[in-house]
Structures are given as C-alpha cells and as structure tokens.
Amino acid sequence: MSIATMVAELAKGMVVSTEVFVLTLLFSLPLGLILSFGRMSAHAPLCFLTKIYISLMRGTPFMLQLIVVYFAPFYIFGIKISAGYRFTAVILAFVLNYAAYFAEIYRAGIESIPVGQYEAAKVLGYNKVQTFFKIILPQVVKRILPPVTNETITLVKDTSLAFVLAVTEMFTVAKQIAAKEASMMPLMAAGAFYYIFNLVVAMVMERLEKKMNYFR
Predict the structure, then answer these.
(1) For residues 20 and 169, is the Cβ–Cβ distance under 8 A?
(2) 171 to each of 69, 119, 193, 198, how far by Cα in Å?
C-alpha cells in the first residue's frame, strides 16, 4: 500500500473520530452544567442521585459503559439492536461519561466564586438567573478552561475506544492496515494524526484563555 493510499484511509477514519469528538463536546458540556446544578442542589434526593451517577461514570471502566449502553436496549427492554445503533451508542456513552467529568469541573468552578458576589448582585437587583449567567458563569468559564482543556485532549485520544462497538475510527483503520501490511508505519502515522489534532485543540483553548484573561 502506498503512503498516499494509507493517508487517505487514515483520513477517512479521522472523519469518524472527529464526529465523535465534536458531538461529545456539543452535548456533554451543557449536560455537565445541568448535572453540576443537581450535584449542588439543596434538594437532598436530587443531590444524592446526581452524586451516585457521577460516581458510577467516573468509577467504572469506560469500555464497560460502552458495552452497557449498546446492549441495554435489548436486555432491559427487549428492543432489537440494529447495526446503525452502533454509532449512536458510542455518542451516547461518550456524552454520559464526559458529562460526569465536566459536572465536577463546573461544580469546582462555581463553588470557587466568593459568596460576596452573589450578595452584591442581589443588592443591585439581579435575580438568581441573571446573577448566574451575567456575573458568575463568565468567571467560572475563565477558571475552568485549563481542566476542560485537559479533558478535551483526553477525549481526542479516547475516541479510539469506539472500536469496542465496531465503529471504525482512525486507530482501528491504522490497526487494520498495520496487520495487513505487517508494518508499524500506519500506527506511527495515526499517532501523528492524534498529536496534530491535540495540538490544534490545545492552541484553540490557549487562545480562549488569553481572550478571557482580564489582567493582561
């Protein structure tokens, strides 16, 4: 197999990896914020359930979660599983897993804001929603960008776990080519693809951090 053909095949797999990456971030970031509200809720049952959910997502192997999400419709509800559900199951599992991690990052950011800011906003006539979105959230976003960046970079590499449900992403393509050609070159090329992807992500997040630096 020529280098051009190998790169073309890896690029096709990279498209799938990118789709998993983008869709996971698109849904897990807002879901994580909602979970963080549940985690900090004064309603004890909601706080307890959210805490258990986050604990399960963070404390069990992600590969197991992928398998459970894929097979649960059949074993729990008796729903026949189609081949087309594989990609949906991958996205669902990634979103549910990463939302738990983002929830704890959001919680840490929100709880780091001094109570005095809430009191000052109340004096100025802001209600709770206005206080959060106009005063608290912008500061939280600035504070949580570094840990969110770390999770985002981890997500890029974790997209390779889609192979568990036979979704052919880039690393799976690389392994198939390496086995066929009896060469390490496809795996090295895949590593280069991941590195470049992560480099771009890191650069974008760094620019965001600089834009939100209030003390330049």
Answers:
(1) yes
(2) 22, 51, 10, 15
CATH 1.10.3720.10 fits 3-211, yes or no: yes
Cβ-proximal residues to 16 (8 Å cutoff; 6+ apart), any chain? 162, 167, 168, 169, 170
Token output for 130: 């206005």
The structure tokens listed for 127 are 């209600």
Look at residue 208 in the predicted model and tell me its pLDDT.
Answer: 84
Residue count of the chain, please give it: 216
Helix, strand, coil fractions of the chain, as percent rounded to 5 = 85, 0, 15
Phi, psi of 167 (to 5 degrees): -90, 120
Collapsing DSSP states into helix, strand and coil, what is residue 65?
Answer: helix
What's the whole-model pTM score? 0.89
How many beta carbons lie within 10 A of that of residue 4, not counting itself? Answer: 8
Report the candidate in 131, 112, 134 with the shortest Cα–Cα distance to residue 121.
131
215: pLDDT strictly greater than 50: no
pLDDT digits (tens, 9 = 90+) for 107-129: 999 888 888 888 888 888 888 88
- DSSP structural state of residue 160: G
Measure the CA–CA gap between 202 and 20, rounded to whole angstroms: 18
